Amino acid sequence: MRQWLPLAVGSGLLLAGCTESRGPTQPAVRGVPSFDATHGQRHRTHVMEPRGQNHGRHGGQGGGYTGILYHGGPIIYNQNVAAIYWSGAPIYNGGPTPGSTGSGSADGSLVGLFMSNLGGSSYFNITYFDGSNTPINNVVNYTQYWASNTNLPPTDYSPLSDDAIIAQIELGFSSGALTYDPSTLYIVFTGIGVNPGGGFGTVYCAYHGYYIAADGRNVKYSAMPYAVDPAYPGACSALTGSPNNDVAADAEVNLISHETEETTTDENLDAWYDPSGAENADKCAWQFGLTYTTGNGSTANESIGGKDWLIQMNWPNAATKKGGPVGCKQGWP
Question: Which residues make Cβ contacts (< 8 Å) with residue 218, sequence separation at least 6?
Fold first, then answer.
């Protein structure tokens, strides 16, 4: 189901009100609205649901229909990603030192390695295009990171408003820690106990969207909570073992792949989605296809950048693959 979270910057709506509870709370998530009614809002997001909640994603092809439709909005032809590690300590093993900035190539974490090698893989070779049939290129450039240790988010599962996330991204731009680029997805990583939007683990595992800044910049971003947070064991991770002996990072890359491929094909939430509102990654959420056992006894299904991963399949926009039916694929062609 396609869902939006009500967002605003500054003194506008928050995702969830204050609470004295130390447990997670759910944000005020809209149902499925009319696309026309929500088109043109200055802030919109789309969520990745926890395991077991992605219903009704997989039908609807036939008669030449590929199972997903183009609605005229923009797509990103050459995807860039930037990481914001928002924590007082490194979130992932080998990750950047808090307070530092740098190029993606200087990120020594497993998460950084994945983002640096996702582009060019058969997995990301998704077959989507715009209204003039200009295709998306098989490109993901990990251009920059900011390990932000300022204005730290609460770690007691109290809601972290989307206003605060957007404000932190804007601080990165104004301080020079981040460089703005309209084709970049700014991925905000947080650690254990951080509850972006107030619905992590119950309503969603991650989300992506965009906002229009005061000077007209269209900023694409995603909220990327800690996938193996002990408060929600199994809600946002499908690991059996850990292919790279790094459970936190091995689980997180599945969320990264989901939000990155959806941003590429539906950056403003008005391009590619099916009649139920599902974007390409939604249609294959938590489906992994053929798997294999790694040398350490873990389960994986992809080899990218010389490492083994367990990442969900993606939905290609093509009626057939070498004569086979449309559906979730582990790579293309």
Answer: 182, 210, 211, 212, 268
Query: How far is Cα of residue 85 from the mean position of the Cα atoms in its chain?
Result: 14
Quote the crossing angle between the two packed helices 110-117 and 247-265, to the nearest 10°.
30
Please name which of 274, 244, 262, 154 lies closest in space to residue 204, comparing C-alpha atoms: 262
- pLDDT score, position 54: 58
Q: For the residues of 200-259, what is the DSSP string, one character each?
A: BTTTBSEEEEEEE-TTS-EEEEEEE--TT-TTSTTTS---SS-TTS-HHHHHHHHHHHHH
Rg of the chain (C-alpha set): 18
Residue 34 has pLDDT above 80, yes or no: no
The 3-state DSSP class for residue 320 equals strand
Q: Output the furthest CA–CA distance in the chain (Å, rounded).
A: 57
- Identify the residue whose tokens are 């990654």: 281
Given a cut of 70, whether residue 98 has pLDDT beyond it is yes
Cα distance between residue 175 and residue 18, in whole Å: 29
Contact 91, 189 (CB under 8 A): yes
Banded model confidence at residue 271, pLDDT cuts 50, 70, 90: very high
pTM above 0.85, yes or no: yes
**148-160 pLDDT tens trace:** 999 999 999 999 9
- Residue 14 near residue 160 (C-beta atoms within 8 A): no
